[in-house]
Amino acid sequence: MRRTLSTVTNKWTVLIVRVLGRGPYRLNTLRREIGEISKKVVVSSLRDLEENGFVSRIAHHEVQHQ
Length: 66
Prior knowledge:
Blueprint: H1 2-8, H2 11-20, H3 27-34, H4 39-51
């Protein structure tokens, strides 16, 4: 319970949830929408949200064009 509460009251988590409320986003698009946030913080926050059942994640394999 304590971990869940600390997850949802985190400044960055609140901003991430707010943006994700508009729909699904890829990681870099999410970062651009939020602003001054590092990739590490976004990934960590998303993992916490996923572990607590607030978001679900779909992994898309990146296709490199030659």
